[in-house]
């Protein structure tokens, strides 16, 4: 098959990571795969000032920003400037896939020669802050074949388009990159999280949770990573070892340092870091969002708490950190087993077969 993925700016978001994995695997399976994206949209003066106030430094996007496609061999084309992607940018193909709400508008306008039109939906974009919700909701009724990444997200999409057939392909984890040998609890209690300055990711909630956990465990070690520098004012009083834009090979080391991986997200399609942490034998405590809801079994490989429930997150994290070494090892091993039973190759095969079926049906 000839397959084209249409992306917005191809940076370091989880959704871009998933697309990069599928594009590379499909290419390695013998398909002709092209990825077409835009440069990052320029920041307004207002946005630059807001980032300066939150991060304490001026932020200017450059052409040398990192991308999950940097280490991939798939053909990735970045168009000349941020604008709509049109027929002139897209080769004729069998399948063309929109990967974000704005790209659904672009793909919907493409000519039939560009391929069967597919909409790969990875999040509840119609509920994201600072996004035109009505415009997003409209995309769910476009005549595009829909694929999503979790059962809960499928049911959510049906709120906007009950008659749509939606195919689910759950995310996996690269166990060549994320793995750990048998290990014990750390000599000092340790916890980790992924930092983001997006309200959706709940870093403000995590900061409050960590302060309360630190009241119980005086020598608590805290590790984090993210695509931007941490807001030190938000985490005042906490001693955090933070890594900004770590090499992908180093993220495993961060997971492996932790006895618990904490997720405070308020909204996710399928949040990958908890599953990556599990592959590194780290139990997870997470809010009830996509991803953790699909993989975490309470008391077996981690725990789920209601969204924005600080007290429950504290209680569950403390419960794991208070386990005996033998009890923790049992939970750690179960987390690892959860991560390895379903691979990216399994997921890519499901996606490949579904795209083939779409071609036959058309």
Describe the protein in words.
By secondary structure, this protein is α/β, with parallel strands linked by helices. It has helices spanning 14-28, 45-55, 101-109, 133-139, 151-157, 203-216, 248-256, 272-279, 292-295, 310-321, 325-340, 344-361; strands at residues 2-6, 32-37, 75-78, 95-98, 116-121, 145-148, 166-168, 190-194, 221-226, 240-244, 260-263, 284-287, 302-305. Helix 1 links the parallel strand 1 and strand 2 (32-37).
Biggest beta sheet summary: 7 strands, parallel
Q: What structural category characterises the helix and strand content?
A: alpha/beta
What proportion of the residues form beta strands (DSSP E)?
15-25%
Helical content stands at 25-40%
Give the rounded overall mean pLDDT: 92
List the secondary-structure elements in sequence, H or E: EHEHEEHEHEHEEHEEHEHEHEHHH
Distance linking N and C termini: 14 Å
Figure out the total of helices.
Answer: 12
Low-confidence runs:
none
Which strand order spans the largest sheet, edge to edge or round the barrel?
A: 3-2-1-4-5-6-7
| Beta-strand segment tally | 13
Shape: globular
Radius of gyration: 21 Å
């Amino acid at each position: 098959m000839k397959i084209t993925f249409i992306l917005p700016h191809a940076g370091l978001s989880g959704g871009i990571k998933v697309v990069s994995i599928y594009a590379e695997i499909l290419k390695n399976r013998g398909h002709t795969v092209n990825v077409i994206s835009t440069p990052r949209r320029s920041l307004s003066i207002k946005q630059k000032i807001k980032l300066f106030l939150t991060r304490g430094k001026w932020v200017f996007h450059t052409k040398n920003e990192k991308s999950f496609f940097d280490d991939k061999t798939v053909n990735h084309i970045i168009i000349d400037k941020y604008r709509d992607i049109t027929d002139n940018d897209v080769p004729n193909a069998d399948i063309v896939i929109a990967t974000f709400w704005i790209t659904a508008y672009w793909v919907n306008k493409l000519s039939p020669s560009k391929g069967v039109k597919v909409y790969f939906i990875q999040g509840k974009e119609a509920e994201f802050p600072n996004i035109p919700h009505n415009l997003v909701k409209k995309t769910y009724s476009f005549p595009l074949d829909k694929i999503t990444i979790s059962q809960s997200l499928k049911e959510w999409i049906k709120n906007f388009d009950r008659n749509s057939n939606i195919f689910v392909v759950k995310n996996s984890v690269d166990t060549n990159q994320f793995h750990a040998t048998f290990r014990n609890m750390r000599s000092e209690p340790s916890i980790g999280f992924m930092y983001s300055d997006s309200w959706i990711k709940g870093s403000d909630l995590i900061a409050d949770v960590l302060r309360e956990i630190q009241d119980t465990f005086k020598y608590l070690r805290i590790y984090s990573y993210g695509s931007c520098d941490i807001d030190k004012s938000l985490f005042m009083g906490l001693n955090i070892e933070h890594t900004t834009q770590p090499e992908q090979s180093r993220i495993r080391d961060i997971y492996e340092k932790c006895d618990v991986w904490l997720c405070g997200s308020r909204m996710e399609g399928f949040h990958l870091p908890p599953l990556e942490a599990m592959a590194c034998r780290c139990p997870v405590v997470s809010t009830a969002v996509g991803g953790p809801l699909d993989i975490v079994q309470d008391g077996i490989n981690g725990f789920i708490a209601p969204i924005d429930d600080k007290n429950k997150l504290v209680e569950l994290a403390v419960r794991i950190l208070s386990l005996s070494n033998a009890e923790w090892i049992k939970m750690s091993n179960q987390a690892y087993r959860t991560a390895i039973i379903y691979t990216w190759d399994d997921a890519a095969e499901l996606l490949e077969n579904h795209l083939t079926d779409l071609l036959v049906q058309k």
